[in-house]
Amino acid sequence: MDLSLTERTKEGIVILDAKGQIVAGDGADRLRERLKALAEAGSTNAILNLAHVDYIDSSGLGALVMSFSALRKKEGTLKLLNLTRRNVELLVLTKLETVFEVFDDEQSAVNSFFPNREIKRFDILSFLQQRKKGTVEE
Fold this sequence. Notes:
By secondary structure, the protein is of the alpha/beta class. The protein has a single domain, classed as 2-Layer Sandwich (Transcription Regulator spoIIAA), CATH 3.30.750. Helix content is about 40%, strand content about 25%. The chain has a 5-stranded mixed β-sheet, with helices on both faces. Helix 1 runs parallel beside helix 2. The longest helix has 16 residues. The two termini are about 20 Å apart.
């Protein structure tokens, strides 16, 4: 399935809703190019909503890291929202959970760009413990 990206803005923060797969070729390239264009246009803070992304391969991970780095060079950042169970496991396996801020609530992700707002971070350790006990839905 090809990757589609829908852009919207909430409180001045760009949110990209992704749907499909972030894989070698068009998917990874499309994501990288879109985030690069945003950075060049001055939108250096972005949230990538991965709720409807069912697969990310190594090229897709590379695109995420490259996009994160490109935004950081412009003094911005990329945060991840609504990861599937598989994508959370992928971040943990590759130790990228130490690079990306991950959220399961859109408003908390937006609030994280504003220093005095309350945020609720996604607790990866708790998620994995629940999964081990079988209380997290696949």
